[in-house]
Design a protein that fits this description.
Residues 11-321 form the Enoyl reductase (ER) domain. By secondary structure, the protein is α/β, with parallel strands linked by helices. Helices cover 27% and strands 25% of the residues. The chain has 2 domains: 2-120 and 268-322, Medium-chain alcohol dehydrogenases, catalytic domain (Quinone Oxidoreductase, Chain A, domain 1, Alpha-Beta Complex), CATH 3.90.180.10; 138-261, Rossmann fold, CATH 3.40.50. Strands 3, 4, 5, 6, 7, 14 and 15 form a 7-stranded mixed sheet that branches. It has a 6-stranded parallel sheet with strand order 10-9-8-11-12-13, sandwiched between helices.
């Protein structure tokens, strides 16, 4: 038996219930992990509310790190005692779990399991956004919404290390200060300023090469007004709600813009892609160009409180659930 959070009906944070569940031996191509920590991400909220579809009941969560305690049939790539992490394996909210090895990477000795759990999904998201979706080059001007969030704090440091001018948005002085300490050149308080007008001022009218937008409804279509002609709007989340349907002709009107709606799981679909993305993240963290700060920790049993705080913007940066 192991403790897990099980969702049996969709809804608010109150549907996150602690249960004791039976854990079967790992199957072929799987290992069992005793989890040290579990990452909290907004995608967990999307599944809990039903915005993203899955079958009921289910254990939420995509990201975690721990130690291998049992091997399934045919597993030779991992050994007992290996320190491992993952960012795309459903069912993370559990003290112990079985994971297909196709989702796993080994954690370098220099990186703690807690740090690994805090950075895998968020850090690999920053990696594919900045190095693959719109590859950042020196001189690029970037706007990153939710600058003080988990992805935002990693992305700000990484984009700065790549030579960009990095502009962010945040909703309080504390979050603005946090973002400024993590690579951002400028941070706009979206509760007090029109962020599109402020971007125009900050760039001397030249605007941005790319906008990375995980907010969605509240930042569209103004995000398009922040872009240079032929700039790219990267919509990778919708914390304020999904973007309403719009005419593709709007992209022409705003300057022959590009728009994409990427997701991490299409960038790490093969073993080679997963290893390359994870190793790129591990390298930039080990180089100290990007530091991972764990700003909040909750017991796994209090996952509901963690979700409530996340949704009401009481959290900043990275949050962990600890079994």
């Amino acid at each position: 038996m192991t403790q897990a959070i099980v969702i049996r009906s969709l809804g608010g944070p109150e549907v996150l219930k602690v249960e004791e569940i039976e854990l079967s031996p790992p199957g072929p191509g799987e290992v069992r992990i005793r989890q040290a920590a579990i990452g909290l991400n907004f995608i967990d909220v999307y599944f809990r509310t039903g915005l993203y579809k899955t079958d009921l009941p289910f254990i939420p969560g995509k990201e975690g790190a721990g130690t291998v305690t049992a091997l399934g049939e045919g597993v030779t790539e991992f050994a007992l005692g290996d320190r491992v992490a993952y960012a795309s394996a459903d069912g993370a909210y559990a003290a112990e779990r079985n994971v297909a090895i196709s989702h796993l990477v080994k954690v370098p000795d220099e990186i703690s399991l807690e740090t690994a759990a805090a950075m895998m999904l968020k850090g690999m998201t920053a990696q594919y956004l900045l190095l693959q979706t719109f590859p950042i080059k020196p001189g690029h001007v970037v706007l990153f919404h939710a600058a003080a969030g988990g992805v935002g704090l990693i992305a700000g440091q990484w984009a700065k290390a790549l030579g960009a001018t990095v502009i962010g948005t945040a909703g309080s002085k504390a979050k603005i200060d946090l973002a400024l300490a993590h690579g951002y050149d400028h941070v706009i308080d979206y509760t007090k300023e029109d962020f599109a007008e402020r971007v125009l001022e900050l760039t001397g009218g030249k605007k941005c090469d790319v906008v990375y937008d995980s907010v969605g409804k509240d930042t569209f279509p103004k995000s398009l007004d922040c872009l240079k002609p032929r700039g790219m709007w990267v919509s990778f989340g919708n914390s304020s709600g999904p973007v309403d349907a719009f005419s593709i002709g709007l992209l022409a009107q705003k300057g022959s813009l590009f728009a994409t709606r990427p997701t991490l799981f299409h960038y790490v679909a093969t073993r080679a892609e997963l290893d390359a993305c994870a190793n790129s993240l591990f390298d930039v963290v080990r180089s100290n160009k990007v530091r991972i700060n764990i700003n909040q920790t909750y017991p796994l049993a209090e996952a509901g409180r963690a979700h409530a705080d996340l949704e009401t913007r009481k959290t900043s940066g990275t949050t962990l659930l600890v079994p």
